[in-house]
């Protein structure tokens, strides 16, 4: 199987980036997308190092302009991508998604071309949403305390740590309350560890999956 991109020298974890054809998705599509992937890739939920990047529409800087309303839809362009963070030895198995049309909350999402993207060397990272098992994201102080504690367990003390406003993420079992999180002033080693390991819970719902950000001033965090 030929896969574009990749760099075998840097990390055992990479992003598998799939081109997709999908006109729209619900804004809150994490659970439905995760279930569709798990149905197609039975090993996905059991893989401890797997993570999901939820699909995003319009963006401003590194922030995501999230349409409001329970029934709001993301209007997706041809540049939209489905991205899974995976160990390299799972990439070939993930290619089983190619040519399939996933049912994501009633919206068809066709999966085409696959390319690999190595983890970034950039030392300013952000996640669109982070959830902690024992911290209520309604309370910013509690959320930041949980984030700081988990970062310390990874040996990471960022120079800057900022969170965004709380947003809900619904599943049949519960509604998670998540916040975006940005970290700056990391070392390259810390950046790679955080991208590999993630932070908090529910990585297969897209939580705690970090991506690079080049300019703190462009972040579109929205305070409560």
Nutshell version of this structure?
The chain is α+β, with helices and mostly antiparallel strands and 224 residues long. The protein has two domains: 4-118, Alpha-Beta Plaits (2-Layer Sandwich), CATH 3.30.70.1890; 125-218, Alpha-Beta Plaits (2-Layer Sandwich), CATH 3.30.70.
Describe this structure in words.
The protein has 224 residues and is α+β, with helices and mostly antiparallel strands. The protein folds into 2 domains: 4-118, Alpha-Beta Plaits (2-Layer Sandwich), CATH 3.30.70; 125-218, Alpha-Beta Plaits, CATH 3.30.70. The chain has 4 helices and 14 strands. It has helices at 30-40, 91-94, 140-153, 188-197, and strands spanning 4-5, 13-21, 24-26, 51-53, 59-60, 63-64, 73-75, 81-87, 101-104, 107-118, 125-130, 160-170, 175-184, 211-212. The strands form 4 sheets. Strands 1, 2, 4, 8, 9 and 10 form a 6-stranded mixed beta sheet that branches. A 4-stranded antiparallel beta sheet has the order 12-13-11-14, covered by helices on one side. It is globular and about 45 Å long. The chain starts with a strand and ends in a 12-residue tail after the last strand. Residues 6-10, 59-64 and 216-224 have low confidence and may be disordered.
């Amino acid at each position: 199987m030929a896969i574009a991109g990749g760099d075998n020298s840097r990390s055992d974890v990479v992003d598998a980036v799939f081109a997709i054809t999908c006109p729209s998705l619900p804004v809150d599509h994490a659970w439905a997308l995760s279930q569709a992937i798990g149905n197609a890739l039975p090993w996905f939920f059991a893989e401890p190092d797997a993570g999901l990047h939820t699909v995003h529409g319009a963006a401003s800087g590194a922030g995501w302009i999230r349409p409001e309303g329970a029934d709001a839809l993301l209007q997706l362009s041809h540049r939209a991508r489905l991205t899974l963070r995976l160990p390299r030895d799972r990439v070939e198995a993930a290619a089983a998604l190619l040519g399939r049309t996933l049912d994501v909350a009633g919206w068809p999402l066709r999966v085409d071309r696959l390319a690999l993207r190595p983890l970034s060397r950039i030392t300013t990272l952000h996640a669109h949403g982070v959830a902690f098992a024992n911290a209520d994201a309604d309370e910013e102080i509690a959320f930041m305390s949980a984030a700081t504690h988990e970062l310390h367990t990874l040996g990471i003390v960022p120079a800057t740590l900022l969170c965004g406003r709380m947003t809900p993420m619904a599943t049949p079992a519960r509604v998670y309350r998540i916040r975006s999180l940005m970290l700056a002033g990391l070392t390259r080693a810390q950046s790679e560890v955080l991208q590999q390991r993630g932070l908090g819970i529910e990585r297969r719902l897209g939580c705690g999956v970090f991506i690079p950000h080049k300019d703190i001033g462009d972040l579109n965090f929205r305070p409560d």
